[in-house]
Specification:
By secondary structure, the protein is an alpha/beta fold. It has 2 domains: about 200 residues, Spore Coat Polysaccharide Biosynthesis Protein SpsA, Chain A, CATH 3.90.550.10; about 100 residues, Hexapeptide repeat proteins (UDP N-Acetylglucosamine Acyltransferase, domain 1, 3 Solenoid). The chain has 8 helices and 25 strands. Strands 13, 15, 16, 18, 19, 21, 23 and 25 form an 8-stranded parallel sheet that branches. The chain has a 5-stranded parallel sheet with strand order 14-17-20-22-24, covered by helices on one side. It is elongated. The mean pLDDT is about 95.
């Protein structure tokens, strides 16, 4: 899914690669072959391995799925695949302790949170607490120095069927590690966008398009037939757009066909087809087809909807 003209996963991999990481393990599931194909084509220089999480039982379970790939490593870095972040990764990588990326938020009950001491060491972590004792959210970035203890902690949760909100949570495994004496340093991140939620995804898209270097301009875009472009927008290659109004704050993937439509504040995945629609605050998945509509949508890949 593109944000400001760039797939979310590329924001993550590019940041990690720039920090010096070159060996990646991707935990994938439904439609995971699309992810694998894209990564292998986009990053042929990286050493990559792909493991399948056949049943979605939580973030801790996802880490356990990759245990054979990571069990012999002295140190690993974990990044969630739906998070765009702006952080000094060198600070985390050079720290002599395990680390958590954290960020102050207004709604801590929606996230895993970390309670810190006066030296920014983590005292306790809790997944989506009903009554938060802190507003310091865990942002989905982790450096783990004690990999065997991490895997033992997740295995303990699985064997004892310890679940939070019905899932094996990585947060619970980290708390188990803390109780076993592992020290975690909290490292603040400058910006963090949890793109697993539609509203945040669209806000992030608009914010990045407003920054220099992300949006297209009139000099870089082709002339589309009888179409008005309201900037900022990002439009991919090989798109066919006619009799439409596009923008503002619209990202369109490659190979998209749009006819007789008005689209604003939306993200359109590659190879999608839209005709006779008015879309706002919408996310349209890769290869989807929508005709004759005036609503806000959030639909997955390879979906076809015809309201005519």
């Amino acid at each position: 899914m593109p944000v400001a003209g760039k797939p979310i996963i590329c924001f993550i991999v590019d940041k990690l690669a720039e920090a010096g990481l070159s060996e990646f393990v991707f935990v994938i599931g439904y439609l995971g072959e699309k992810v694998r194909s894209f990564i292998e084509k986009r990053y042929p220089h990286l050493k990559t391995e792909f493991v399948y999480q056949e049943s979605r039982e939580g973030s801790g379970h996802a880490v356990w799925t990759a245990h054979e790939a990571i069990e012999d490593e002295e140190e690993i870095f974990i990044a969630f695949g739906d998070t765009i972040f702006d952080a000094d990764l060198s600070q985390m990588l050079q720290c002599p302790y395990s680390c958590l990326g954290v960020k102050k938020v207004d709604t801590p009950r929606e996230f895993g949170v970390a309670e810190l001491d006066s030296n920014d060491f983590v005292v306790r972590v809790v997944e989506k607490p009903r009554i938060p004792k802190t507003n310091m959210a865990i942002v989905g970035l982790y450096k783990i120095r004690n990999v065997p203890l991490l895997l033992r902690s997740v295995e303990y949760l699985m064997n004892q069927n310890v679940r939070t909100f019905g899932e094996i949570q990585l947060t619970d495994a980290l708390q188990f590690m803390i109780e076993q004496g592992e020290r975690f340093k909290a490292v603040p991140v400058r910006n963090w966008f949890d793109c697993g939620r539609k509203e945040v995804l669209l806000e992030t898209n608009a914010m990045l398009l407003s920054q220099r270097g992300y949006a297209d301009d009139a000099l870089t875009l082709p002339v589309f037939d009888n179409t008005i472009i309201i900037y900022p927008v990002s439009i991919g290659d090989d798109c066919q757009i006619a009799n439409s109004i596009i923008g503002p704050n619209v990202t369109i993937g490659n190979g998209v066909s749009i006819k007789d439509s008005i689209i604003k504040d939306s993200i359109i995945g590659s190879q999608a087809s839209l005709e006779d629609v008015v879309l706002r605050h919408s996310v349209i998945g890769i290869g989807s087809s929508v005709r004759g509509l005036n609503l806000a949508l959030n639909i997955g890949d390879d979906t076809e909807i015809d309201f005519r």
